[in-house]
Amino acid sequence: MKNRKWKKFDTSGFTTSVSFDRRLAVYDITGSIAHCKMLVKCKIIPKSEGEKILKGLREIKEEIIKGKFKFLSQDEDIHMAIERRLIDKIGEAGGRLHTARSRNDQISLDMRMYLRDEIGRVSELIKNLQDSIVKLCERNTEVIMPGFTHLQHAQPVLFSHHLMAYFFMLKRDRERFEDCLKRANVLPLGAGALAGTSFSIDREFTARQLGFSSVSENSVDTVSDRDFVIEFLSTGAILMMHLSRLAEELVIWSSPEFSFIQMDEDFCTGSSIMPQKKNPDVAELVRGKTGRIYGNLQSILTVMKGLPLSYNRDMQEDKERLFDTVDTLKNVLEVLSPLILSLKLNRERMLSAAKQGYLNATDAADYLVRKGVPFRKAHKLIRGIVLYSMNRGKRLEELSLSELRAFSPLFSKDFFSVIDIKSCVELRQSPGGTAPEEVKKQIKNQKSKIKNQKSKIKET
């Protein structure tokens, strides 16, 4: 068989990343400025050349910010694009900047600085959504609705109590992002390609310059680590799960069968064929984009799962997934805050629904317990009364005292005040319960914390 000759194939279009990692440009320059200052401090490069490099980098940063920077086809990634431009501007001295570093520790630095800022922005947007939830709850503290388990009517609750559940989910999400920051805020620069560097560098100086709380402790781990990206994606996936649940309830509540809420026209669209339609498209898209975030997490986990140490080019695939997750999270949070504030509640419909389905049955059982009946026996007895009422098309409060006493002589007139829907809510006074005073306490406490809470995250 003859040897087959292949034509030279240009793979640059396949391997380059500058088309998407250019969003890291300002971080790359900020990191390079700190690195240059460290090289001068440690007398690794002359001060005169260091000054030229710093001047050149600052000018390039302005070019990028103003949109005047020209990315060329031969630029493999953002690091090479900036280095190429620096050498064009100041000559051979620009080539000294890469002393004592590699693109492997450089890209980790850029991504960590980028994530520090984005964690702060996402955290602030979560806070805004929490604020919207609190404001809607404050306006509707007395609105009663059916509470659900298994999507079946369970017990009456305040709408504000139900919605505040999402507030506390978001509270934990913010805490997770702030905790994620601890592991992202570690300086990787100085790890080199994988083995460190032979130059006497000062990593602590660089860390102080860039606001990192610590430096990485193992150079092999440093360049092969994408835990901080995966942790952010995982935290983002949990956040989106919570937002998707909220979106699902908004979709359900706005349906004609429920009619609990009305969404503003700004957050709905019509049908191309059915003139009467008002579709909750924004909430549906929030729900749909959750799968996208899950996919990004799964993608990076799959990329990383079989990689030998240390750096591998596979890891270039992390950026687009990370960027997409960041953008999606911010877009979703930005649209949900005004959507929540725009909601109009159908209070009468909610209260009417709470009066259907025997939601006061648990309170009826508790009534008997207070009369000395063991709960299990009381539960069985009320179950029988519910079935009796269902067969006659009556609610519990519509039964006569004689009908009730046919089941137990312990029933008295005070039973009817106990099973009143409003009373059922007011009696739930245990800490964290749905009683109005308890819910108002939740709202007041959390509103105060939101107002006084200062972000722990400082932008680069």
Descriptive account of the structure:
The protein is mainly alpha-helical and 460 residues long. The chain has helices at residues 12-15, 18-21, 25-41, 47-65, 78-90, 103-139, 159-184, 203-210, 219-224, 227-253, 281-304, 318-342, 347-354, 361-370, 375-391, 401-405, 414-418, 421-426, 436-452, and strands at 144-149, 152-158, 186-187, 214-215, 261-262, 344-345. The strands form three sheets. The protein has a two-stranded antiparallel ribbon. A two-stranded parallel sheet has the order 3-4. Strands 5-6 form a two-stranded antiparallel ribbon. Strand 3 (186-187), helix 8 (203-210) and strand 4 (214-215) form a beta-alpha-beta unit. It is elongated, with a radius of gyration of 31 Å. The model has no long low-confidence stretch (mean pLDDT 95).
Characterize the main sheet. Answer: 2 strands, antiparallel
Widest sheet: strand order? 1-2
The share of residues in helices is: 55-70%
Note the overall shape.
elongated
Q: Count of helical segments?
A: 19
Which range does the strand content fall in? Answer: under 5%
Radius of gyration: 31 Å
SS-derived structural category? mainly alpha
Mean pLDDT across residues? 95
Please write the string of helix (H) and strand (E) elements: HHHHHHEEHEHEHHEHHEHHHHHHH
Q: What is the number of beta strands?
A: 6
Instruction: Pick out the low-confidence regions.
Output: none
State the end-to-end CA separation: 61 Å
